[in-house]
Amino acid sequence: MVSSSSFSKLLFWPRWFWRQLTSMRTALFLLLLLAIAAVPGSVYPQRSADPNGVRIFFDNNPDVAEVMDDFQLFDVYTSVWFSAIYILLFVSLVGCVVPRTKVHFEALKAQPVQTPQNLKRMPVHQEVSDQPGYLEAAFKVLKSKRYKVALQGDSVSAEKGYSRETGNLIFHFSLIGVLIAVGVGGGLSFSGQRVLVVGDSFVNNLASYDSFSPGTFFDESQLEPFSVTLDDFQVLYDLQNPNNLGQPIDFIATVTSEGKQSEVRVNYPLEAPGASIYLTGNGFAPVITVFDGEGNIAFSGPSIFLPQDSNMTSLGVIKVPDALPEQVGIIAFFYPTAQQLDSGAYTSIYPDPIDPLMTMNVYSGDLGLDEGIPKNVFALDTTDLEVVASRDGPNDPIQLRIGETVDLPNQLGKVRFDGLLRFASLDVAYNPGGIWVLFFAMLSLFSMGLSLMTPRRRIWVRRNGDGTIEFAALARSDDPRLEEVLAEIRSEIESKVGSK
């Protein structure tokens, strides 16, 4: 059998750990640690919100990205270490606040403290001559000022300011509410991304998303049916300020949803059934037709080009696996307002398509699309391909302006630049915890103000045997108005006594 002393020793460390975890100091430390842990989520692209940004980061920093991915820096808010801090903070707050709530509730029901024997030791102390009815008047005045008052023989004891601790507790319960709302809301939430070229439509089902990030408790039945058609996309540029010339000042996506035309702008989402639609990106989608060596149309339609700089120099990849006699791969660069550099390369000097130009590097060979392995649509692996046209290849890169048709080298066919469309990246998101996070955040601000603005005071009035009345006041914290408040109370009591 285990002796009671041995059992107490076994419980020592669990009790010590629980006391440390549920202390207010630990809760504040974990709250700070949670804020610090959230920083990488705002610095690095996250798969749930910006999967394309994660892909670009991997392309630009392949070695570093692999290490970062091992530490879940691209999935910060669902990572093991972030969740551990989150859960510990929740347990710490609950373990800290619940016992304090019980103590506070008992204090609300309790009578004011006994009047101290030596009131002269209080920070504020006054003596006046005794008059008949002084204690009765003190009781009534303090009661009218919402003090909790008790008549204790030859003294009156009064307390006020319990709402300070009430506000403090509500603040901490609000933090717990925020944590619950974020956790439950995140579990029931979903976020899906879809790129739409002007004229394209999107239907709200899993198959229609380019990427989709469900919460832990997500169920496909949550997706309410609706459709969205991108009718037009416009970018407004600053043409007034010389120092800001050509900088975008607004992005406007005109969409039709449920038979109603609306606009989606940055920070102005469209409310759809069961979700909100946000505008998160945009770019150009040149319309290209590729004819193979036998004159057949092997590819035709708009192709998404990803912006590479602020002047919308864009990169696109076109894969033509059905071309004959050989498969064709194209890495194309689009310049909305093209200007040639001294090196012979091109760049865009303005983001709007004033003088659009497209250049193409052409490759031929097996594109690897028949292997059954998913390939990145925005990248072309040229390792096993033959260079047909590029700056370092046997032929110069192909140059095309809108409406032009150019023959591909080696009798691979022709390519035609038919027109220019824009695309918009839409994020369809749903999070039922959002409104509750706002509610608890507002409640925490209100309760914090209540706690900070409410002073905690104790006041005593005692009749002495030498014909004097003692006044004393004590504040729970620094209270510069304590002496003034006591003087006002004494003056009001004396006015009541003198009126009799």
Keywords:
single chain, TATA-Binding Protein, 7-stranded antiparallel sheet, 6-stranded antiparallel sheet
Outline of this structure?
This protein is 32% helix and 32% strand. It is of the alpha+beta class and 500 residues long.
Description:
Helices cover 32% and strands 32% of the residues. With 500 residues, it is α+β, with helices and mostly antiparallel strands. The chain folds into three domains: 14-103; 111-161 and 457-498, TATA-Binding Protein (2-Layer Sandwich), CATH 3.30.310.10; 190-430, no CATH class. The strands form five sheets. Strands 4, 6, 10, 11, 12, 21 and 22 form a seven-stranded antiparallel beta sheet that branches. A hairpin with a 6-residue loop joins strand 13 and strand 14. Helix 6 packs antiparallel against helix 8, helix 7 (134-144) packs across helix 10 (482-498) and helix 8 (162-188) runs antiparallel to helix 9 (434-453). The radius of gyration is 36 Å and the shape is elongated. The N and C termini lie far apart (77 Å).
Helix and strand arrangement:
Elements: H1 4-21, H2 24-37, H3 39-43, H4 51-60, H5 62-70, H6 80-109, E1 124-129, H7 134-144, E2 148-152, E3 155-160, H8 162-188, E4 190-197, E5 201-203, E6 211-214, E7 227-237, E8 248-257, E9 260-265, E10 270-272, E11 275-291, E12 297-302, E13 306-307, E14 314-320, E15 328-335, E16 338-340, E17 346-348, E18 357-364, E19 386-389, E20 398-400, E21 405-408, E22 413-430, H9 434-453, E23 457-463, E24 468-475, H10 482-498
Antiparallel strand pairs: 1-24, 2-3, 3-23, 4-6, 4-22, 5-7, 7-8, 8-9, 10-11, 11-12, 11-22, 13-14, 14-15, 15-18, 16-17, 18-19, 18-20, 21-22, 23-24
